[in-house]
Amino acid sequence: MPPKAQPADRAELLQGTLDLVVLQTLRWGPRHGYGIARLIQANSDDLLRVETGSLYPALHRLERKGWIEASWRVSESGQRVREYQLTDDGLKQLASERSRWERLAEAMAMILEPPKEVTS
């Protein structure tokens, strides 16, 4: 297992990828905002951290688009928390976002390979 990322090694999410990361995290089940942030951090081996100043506006945007829905529940500690879950439209959007991300990752991998001979 690789060592945990140090603060200077942490990656910034590319603009537009936060939606994908949040939708994928909710694919694993409903979560409240803090739970989403912790799961992203844990599943990225501490490389990605989503701050509340970015997360909650993203959650509200995704909710307005109909890709997630929120409901109130009482947590294990007895506090009311807003829990988010993926909708059917959100699942479709996740598939679309993943496909777009996979194409981008393939293009980046090709660019990072040694150059091919180009004939003019």
Folded structure, characterized:
The chain has 120 residues and is an alpha+beta fold. The chain has a single domain, classed as Winged helix-like DNA-binding domain superfamily/Winged helix DNA-binding domain (Arc Repressor Mutant, subunit A, Orthogonal Bundle). The protein has four helices and three strands. Strands 1-3-2 form a three-stranded antiparallel beta sheet. Helix 1 crosses helix 4.
Q: Which CATH class?
A: Mainly Alpha
Q: Examine the secondary-structure arrangement and name the CATH architecture.
A: Orthogonal Bundle
| Classification by helices and strands | alpha+beta
Query: How is the largest sheet built, in terms of strand order?
Result: 1-3-2
Helix content estimate: 40-55%
On the 0-100 scale, what is the average pLDDT?
Answer: 88
Q: Number of domains in the coordinates?
A: 1
Q: CATH topology, what is it called?
A: Arc Repressor Mutant, subunit A
CATH homologous superfamily caption: Winged helix-like DNA-binding domain superfamily/Winged helix DNA-binding domain
Largest sheet composition:
3 strands, antiparallel
> Outline, from the CA principal axes?
elongated
The share of residues in extended strands comes to: 5-15%
Question: Which oligomeric form is depicted?
Answer: single chain
Count every helix, treating DSSP H or I runs of 4 or more residues as helices.
Answer: 4
> Which radius of gyration do the C-alpha atoms yield?
17 Å
